Amino acid sequence: MTEERSPNGERGAMTGERRPHGERGPMTGFDHAGSDIDCAIVGGGPAGLTAALYLARFRRRVVVIDACQSRASLIPLSHNYPGFPQGVSGAELLGRLRRQASQYGVEILHGTAETLKAQERGSLLTVERRPVRAATVLLATGVRDRKPDIPDLRTATLSGAVRWCPICDGYEVQDQRVALISAPQEGYRHALFLRTYTSRLCWFVHGDAGTLDENDAAHLAELDVKIIRSPITQIRTLPGPHVSLWTQDGNEHFANTVYPMVGCQPRVELLEGFGARVDDVRQLWVDAHQRTSIPGIYAAGDVVHALNQMSVAVAHAATAATAIHNALPYNYR
């Protein structure tokens, strides 16, 4: 590892070994654009769009492949993203990022990246059966929330009564009636976290994987957390917004806010067969420069083993983009 200068000449950008001065690295054509592409970014959420902005301002040719599946788009209003005192919706934030990136010539391809293949120089992706060739690839594909199989859950989500991230918006549910849906093994720690915000908490134990530790149950009882083991069969959105939850035993329960927390699935399908290093839930391990274990492949955002937060994702993106720029051939004016 060697210490490099950042683009503004300041010291301290640790980016790994640099090429000999003037040596050209891998550059390949991008069929759709008919020009060389320095980085193909897979994912059009906060991480992908921020990385595109940075790379474009480094005067790099970049394309964003956006399947329009960012979880940020489902956020009705976030109050913990810095710089927005009145809050910002996920849709508004994504729109701002797209407009900002487009000012610097970033091209956004709307479609799904279907395959990724390593080549002698760079990588080849297919997007809706079209080839995309790039010197480097940044995966900002995020994760899919695992959703309980409960009718009308999406409707309740769009109403604002179902939320997916208590770190993001637990502050907004203070002293509300909160329902947690979680498995026996994970629900205990989720309940303790939510107890930070409300004493009116009910945990609906989800699924059959594992058994609920009785000591944990006793501790939650001391904290006045109600535990319901009968499965939820129906969720109904009511004015307020709030919801009613029907359980298999025929009882109806009311809540202002529901947090389904049954895990997530990282979107790493593009790396199948590469042997990428992942953690126990298949999130990608990266180094300090957001490099995966596969040469030329970087990752940022929720797909990475880290805290799943938009502010973390954009920090990953800035780090990855700078490392990519410093690893590519010099692009002197």
Task: Write structural notes for this entry.
The chain contains seven helices and 21 strands. With 333 residues, it is an alpha/beta fold. Helix 1 (46-57) runs parallel beside helix 2 (90-102) and helix 1 (46-57) packs parallel to helix 7 (310-327). The radius of gyration is 22 Å and the shape is elongated. The model is unreliable at 1-35 (pLDDT under 50).
Number of strands: 21
Instruction: Outline the low-pLDDT stretches.
Output: 1-35
What share of the residues does DSSP label as strand, in percent? 25-35%
Instruction: Find the structural class using helix and strand composition.
Output: alpha/beta
Shape: elongated
Distance between the termini: 27 Å
N to C succession of SSEs: EEEEEHEHEEEEEEHHEHEHEEEEEEEH
User: On the 0-100 scale, what is the average pLDDT?
Assistant: 88
Strand order of the largest sheet: 7-6-5-11-21
CA radius of gyration: 22 Å
Number of helices: 7
Oligomer: single chain
The amount of helix comes to 10-25%
Largest beta-sheet characterization: 5 strands, parallel
Key traits:
four-stranded parallel sheet; about 20% helix; five-stranded parallel sheet; alpha/beta; disordered N terminus; about 325 residues; 7 helices
Quick recap:
This protein is of the alpha/beta class and 333 residues long. It has helices at residues 46-57, 90-102, 153-159, 166-169, 184-194, 214-222, 310-327; strands at residues 3-5, 11-14, 28-30, 35-37, 39-42, 62-66, 107-110, 113-118, 123-127, 130-134, 136-139, 143-145, 178-182, 201-205, 226-228, 232-238, 242-247, 252-255, 257-261, 264-266, 297-299. It has a five-stranded parallel β-sheet, with helices on one face. A four-stranded parallel β-sheet has the order 15-14-13-19, with helices on one face.
